[in-house]
Design brief:
The protein is mainly α. It has one domain. It contains 4 helices and no strands. Helix 3 packs across helix 4.
Length: about 70
């Protein structure tokens, strides 16, 4: 049985389907951005890449959490 994703990662299948890019590509964009604050990154994804708020928030939250654990 496959475990169901929880938290921000639960949005990933719909993000990939709706926007046509793999999550790794979105994370690379976030990591290469000169912005560092959560809401700045969310606003940037919304305005520059057309993501909805929930999807942008999930990507940023997951990416920043992943990076803080490195």
């Amino acid at each position: 049985m496959t475990a169901t994703a929880k938290g921000p990662a639960s949005y990933f299948p719909s993000i990939e389907k709706k926007y046509g890019r793999p999550i790794a590509e979105w994370q690379e964009l976030i990591r290469s951005s000169p912005l560092a604050k959560h809401m700045e990154l969310v606003s940037w994804l919304k305005s520059e890449h057309g993501l909805g708020h929930g999807h942008a928030n999930a990507l940023v939250a997951h990416t920043l959490a992943e990076d803080s654990g490195r």
